[in-house]
Amino acid sequence: MPEPQDDVLVQAAGLTKVHRAGGLRAVDGIDFELRRGVAFGFLGPNGAGKSTTMRMIGCVSTPSAGRLRILGLDPATQGELIRARIGVVPQEDSLDVDLTVRENLLVYGRYFGLSRRESRERAGELLGFAQLEDRADAKVETLSGGMKRRLTIARSLINNPEILLLDEPTTGLDPQARHVLWDRLFRLKQQGVTLILTTHYMDEAEQLCDRLVVMDKGRIAAEGSPRELIDGHSSREVVELRFAVGEQEVMAEKLRDAAERVEVLPDRVLLYTADGESALAAVQQLGIAPLTTLTRRSTLEDVFLRLTGRTLVD
């Protein structure tokens, strides 16, 4: 691995994690770099190795092999120094429900060694950032799911971290709460905080991430910006054609020359093409009349499903 540059915060080369129980290779020799000020996302189905990679970056799991450097430090021997400079937002909220919103922040500040005065100042700033000033003295158990998530993120920022790790930050939130949280995270990035996140939401990855890694079975299947991934692994547009039950395979065979790639699903046929209107014209010329048609731009979800498959993973 080359020597780290000043703006490279995380470097991994041949990073591997083998679980002792059963010898499962959860992460299988992956390489990546994460630069300062970039929002970096890990995408992948369940069991792909995303959370395991995040735990290694967060210094709570030791790599089995390979090399990992975080902020120029070795997590195997300097984990405490690294943890003092990062923030972690776990998938499940771990707030103290017996304390108030403000007290959750104050206690966490003391955990990081902040003085009482520093803790109070930071708590005040973060209550404003999280839009929770009016709930500062409320017990956590009275908060909505979106408020709890914002408080969890605020708490993770108490030590002014250089890197913020977010594991599925908006899982379980309604659309309004998700958009509020996206706004808070975008503001953090503008302030120079480097974000590393896992998500199952393709729109979230496209909204928040400058660069993405798609993982499958412990390995990196692709890496790039959202636009680069779409351009490299899908077409510009997708035409969705719905037919009566049982007709998909026959129709897909007739349509094989109407697009760059044809995919058969249980309820529809997808045509991947640079020009949706031209593809629909070709469908009409063949005398094929779908029940419904939809032309849309290609998305990260198309890339994700092409790289990792459509089989359900428990």
From TrEMBL:
SMART domains: AAA. Signal peptide: none annotated. GO terms for molecular function: ATP binding. It is a peripheral membrane protein. Pfam families: ABC_tran. It comes from the Bacteria. Residues 10-242 form the ABC transporter domain. It is found in: Cell membrane. Keywords: Antibiotic resistance, ATP-binding, Nucleotide-binding, Transport. Belongs to the ABC transporter superfamily. This is ABC transporter ATP-binding protein. It comes from Streptacidiphilus cavernicola.
